Amino acid sequence: MAQKTWVRMVTAQTPTNIAVIKYWGKRDETLILPVNDSISVTLDPAHLCTITTVAVSPSFDQDRMWLNGKEISLSGGRYQNCLREIRARACEVEDKEKGIKIAKNDWEKLHVHVASYNNFPTAAGLASSAAGFACLVFALAKLMKAKEDNSELSAIARQGSGSACRSLFGGFVKWIMGKAEDGSDSLAVQLVDEKHWDELVIIIAVVSSRQKETSSTTGMRDSVETSLLLQHRAKEVVPKRIKQMEEAIKNRDFGSFAQLTCADSNQFHAVCLDTCPPIFYMNDTSHRQVKFLVSCQCASHSRSSSKFYMKCDDTKMVAYTFDAGPNAVLIAHNRKAATQLLQKLLFCFPPSSDADLNSYVIGDKSILKDAGIEDIKDVEALPPPPEIKDAQRCKGDVSYFICTKPGRGPGLLSDESLALLHPETGLPK
Ligand SMILES: Nc1ncnc2c1ncn2[C@@H]1O[C@H](COP(=O)(O)OP(=O)(O)OP(=O)(O)O)[C@@H](O)[C@H]1O
Ligand SMILES: C[C@@](O)(CCOP(=O)(O)OP(=O)(O)O)CC(=O)O
After folding, report:
1. Is this structure's pTM higher than 0.90?
2. Which PANTHER family has this protein been placed in (predicted)?
3. 22-34: per-residue pLDDT in tens?
4. Which residues line ligand 1 (CB under 6 A)?
5. For residue 277, cis peptide bond before it (omega within 30 degrees of 0)
């Protein structure tokens, strides 16, 4: 190593993802190997993302990390596994201008500093661990000039948090569960990029941004140990659904996509109820939202022989999915459908009296404009959705809405002003 004074830094931005076919259950707790394949859509990092700066310097005397401005411990197994796996793949780095020369073997002796920021609530069921671990692994790989491609990196991010492996790509992503005992074939692949189905609009109703009671890790461990439904789901249901979902995505078949997405979310929450003790991630507001969506899209109910049929209007269909929390993630098939959906949502779930619209609908605000809504008065003047009989207004049930769309995978931020660590000290700015 040339001198003792330099700091080498890399800053990356990584999206979060929402599963449309859920991962729930591990067959190996340490390596984080799942009991079934899963498929997710990556959310636009312009609206929901993690930014992570990683730095290395001979002046650092230990690995340190700051998350959302607070120092956290890196001693946990998940962080240690990611750091170890990336260090094992580090390559020689030379920057003549800064007088930096790091040989492959030097990486084992050098320490790193990590600062990370989530622009959305952490540990509230919005997959912060997914964006967080994907960003950590991606940024470290770039810092250490690792040659692995994003699929190979996904197998490392997986050891931080299972769902993180799917955040290494944009668009629609499949996590292949794999068969190998060492987990080497349990990795993410991109099904299609974000341009393939770019008319989709995603609206997230953030019902509660408080930290949840049962973490995904604990919840799925309990489900694996006690739920028979989980075993049936992993063996019989998901393999068929994965194939159908891949077809629906490939053909941009929104009807099938929505039906599969809603069914899989419902089954995941049924598994949670089938767990001992039962886990309740959805709350009353979540249930009201499902009822609201079903009423909006199902024009009429009719009985035929002993079966009960619901005739759903394809053009009004909205896919819903709930992760390990009460927040609804709604996917509309195009802008027009999303505009109508937002109008109806704002009628049924208006902000509490003191809220301002600017902080009630965040992300891509242009959908509000399309809906002809400029201020709170416009929300108050919205007509009741014609499909819903005696529609109730549940004021204050939703904290805020995020409007977004399918987005791209991780990227490097070259603008040094966006770095979270100081370029000379390597400490948080
Ligand atoms: N930016 C980040 N960088 C590294 N680790 C992070 C980051 N953000 C969150 N984490 C880790 O993820 C943990 C939160 O994960 P958890 O699964 O409880 O919640 P979540 O990912 O927000 O929700 P869910 O996965 O259920 O949708 C944090 O305690 C922290 O260890
Ligand atoms: C409901 C889910 O969001 C579960 C995510 O679980 P995590 O990936 O957070 O769990 P660990 O692997 O234990 O870190 C479904 C999904 O994202 O597929």
Report:
1. yes
2. DIPHOSPHOMEVALONATE DECARBOXYLASE
3. 999 999 999 999 9
4. 50, 67, 116, 118, 122-130, 132-133, 136, 163, 215-216, 323-324
5. yes
